[in-house]
Design brief:
By secondary structure, the protein is α/β, with parallel strands linked by helices. The chain is 46% helix and 13% strand. It binds Broken Fe4S4 cluster.
Length: 509
Amino acid sequence: MKKRFIKDRLNHQCSIGKQGKCCKNCLLGPCIVLNRQDKGACGASQDLVVSRNILRFTAGGASAHCGHAYHTLKYLKKDYPFDYIKKKAPSYLYNLWKKHGFLPKAKLEHFKDISEALHTTTMGTNADYKDVIKWCLRLGILDGYYGLYLATELEDQVFGKPEVRVGELNLGVIQPNKINIAVHGHEPILAEALIKEVRKKENLDINLIGVCCTGQAVLARHGIPMAANFLLQENVIATGMIEAMVVDVQCIMPSISDLAECYHTKIITTNELCKMPNAVHMPITNKKEAEEVAHKIISMARTMGRHRLKNKRIRENKKVAVVGFHERNLPYSPKEIADKIRKAQLKGVIAVVGCDNIRVKEDWVKLYKELSKDYLFLTTGCIGFKLANAGLLDGKNFYHLGSCVNNARIAEVFRLIAKAAKKQIHDMPFLISCPQPISEKAISIGMFFAALGVDVHFGYNFLLSSDMHIAKYLEEALKKTFKSKVFLEMKPKQFKRRLQKEGLSTIYK
Ligand code: MSK
């Protein structure tokens, strides 16, 4: 029954929208621009329609990451740091971005830039697709610093830096003889308060588990076992052993509130932005509220535990993975990595990031495993969970750097290695590989790395197919300004062939 339910949902994909060739920015449409010569009712070209769709996607992603940092600042009662991008970015890049008009105009203007990006894509505003593409890069930079960097830095300051440890993961971490509480989403504020509660000796009957990026964050910082990535969140509830699923923001499937109705599970929403039918809404805005809500959740979960059906069992085994790396605790220093690259002992660094998209059937994990003989691998997000499940996160060739916002750690690793090599980032053999994107956030993260001068691979069409004129334009524009490339390669074999033939530093430059 559940399988059919999911299959039916997957059948609802629009093949035209998938390529970005549908404009629904006004009510003269929606208009389809299947061919290059097609125009929308207002005269918008295919290039304009596709570029506007990409920008709206990027704006969605940037708003999520910048919102994450903003919520954390508000929670901590802190102000935005002054001149943040200037402080964090390499100076040559800061000057380049400034020269080409990619920086927010003033303090706090980054949210205005996201809003202006939406404005520029409304019907009858910007008709220059080249300028629309420029906006994508601008929002990528905002996402990188006012989202990824700031959220990571604040959380590290308050909740501590991760530590290298062996973590447990998979549905097997759910304990049949305990009250199971899952924390799910991206902003681990309440999850941190729950950890403190759960570690009190009167709460030894509680088993706290993580899902999605909140799960990655608490796994890396505290060793809280991780039950599932985005793709498996429904399976967590379907075990029938979850008393409460506590969600914050982003990547929380609306389906879970329906699914929870079939079990005894209580869904608890904890952020003003995220409400769900049939859920208990307990928003938190400060530390005191977080502590009180954490306390209430535990007693609510215990009550729900009385309704759990008897004799439930978990069939899946636990997996283990080495987690908890960050930019300063990799086994090799930036200088050692730079030297290995210079001496050709290492062909480069590949960061595998992003989601785990069920529509992608190709076996990227197998390819990464093969390539790890020659390349050092970093990973974050849901795809990191997939690599862990395949047994690759042994702390030798693959290094797990946390959640989606922790892509800031990858940017830092790249910056530090390039600095140690006395080169600019675009001179180094670095690659971002996002084989299975789902969320808009994967696209804005990609735009950020492209603006840093790192090549970005997507393994799934993101409103763009490689034969389109706009894809070629994006390629050229990036090459000219940032010496980087965003490219699509859906076939692992083809990807490997290109990599082996020419290597990272030359093929994609
Ligand atoms: S949770 S953005 S499905 S990685 Fe960060 Fe996973 Fe992608 Fe959400």
